[in-house]
Amino acid sequence: MIILGIETSCDETAAAVVKDGTEVLSNVVLSQVAVHQPFGGIVPELASRKQMEFITWVVHQAMEQAKVSFDCLDAIAVTYGPGLIGSLLVGLSFAKGLALSTGLPLIPVHHLEGHLFSAFLKQKDKDGDGFQPPYLCLIVTGGHTELVWMTRVGRYQVLGQTLDDAAGEAFDKGARALGLGFPGGPAIEKAAQGGDESAILFPRATLEGPFDFSFAGLKTSLYRYLKGLEKRLERKVRPTFADICASYQAAIVDMLLQPLERAMEEKEAPALIVVGGVAANQSLRRRLEDLAQKWRARLLIPPPYWCTDNAAMIAAAAFFRLKEGLSQPDLFADADPRAPLPSFSEAVSN
Ligand code: KG4
Ligand code: ZN
Prior knowledge:
The protein is of the alpha/beta class. Helices cover about 40% and strands about 20% of the residues. It is built from 12 helices and 10 strands. It has helices spanning about 35, 45-65, 85-100, 110-115, 165-175, 185-190, 215-225, 240-265, 280-295, 305, 310-325, 345-350; strands at about 1-5, 10-20, 25-30, 75-80, 105-110, 135-140, 145-150, 155-160, 270-275, 300. The chain is globular and about 65 Å long. Zinc ion (ZN) binds near residues 111, 115, 141 and 276. 5'-O-[(R)-(carboxyoxy)(hydroxy)phosphoryl]adenosine binds near residues 10, 183, 186, 278 and 309.
């Protein structure tokens, strides 16, 4: 089954052609980083305008690079939410038009479910895991931090989530305070190189929900530290800039690992999936490898270029849903900026 995926939920315009949910025939991602950089964050109105400008070219490129014609496709998959409404509408409307003119079925896909299936895209040098649930899944993006127990395609139990900022947001807001560029994750990761992560002991929040996350307090403590109000956090005389970045990054990673480890223990999870932009972080990846080894669990973590937003993951999720009979073609799907992860019972009643 060959599916064209389209993803425009935020500031990337992406299209990809994927065979049988795992084999990526083409993957085109046009980033708008340069457009939003001067503003230190994404400007939604600019994002949707750029999506309109880029979408035709990006889809055309994906089809050309995959060397397929529309006759070879079985479906068109597109992100319907969550995300920025203007950006979502561009991809969804474009996909609807394409589906109508080609007669292909249109499969709406939830963005986070897309991220989950990025874990099954085949890498050149590695055999895939196949699909062997259950999986404990950590989804860490710019807008979401969720811990999910997946027992089969479409059956997702949200064990915990962030009570305030997402992990990616903690990186992005932290980077802004540190005078680094946007997006903040890669900028902090780079600036932290060679830094001493024990130089400053930023606080790690203790929460009531064992699987929940919180990053707002950490962000505030960085702001206060930078204003010279939290000198008592210093464990080293005169920390360097790299030390500050490394210590802040280490606090985010620690706060992701704590609920994750509790859930590994409670669920006795045989396998762990970690996806989303923040999963590209090398320091987090190293800690995850140790964690997986400790619990003798399989670790599925896509290469960095599939952690951040792309359309191959959208086509992959559509394939797995179609295979399970969970998705119906829907030419009238609405964009939903706050769409919750679709659970199995919802999918059946639809
Ligand atoms: O999944 P994603 O591309 O888009 C959303 O769905 O939000 O995630 C974007 C987030 C941003 O907050 C960005 O700073 C973060 O992922 N990110 C990283 C890294 N690369 C991207 N965070 C930490 N380290 C990285 N290397
Ligand atoms: Zn994303």
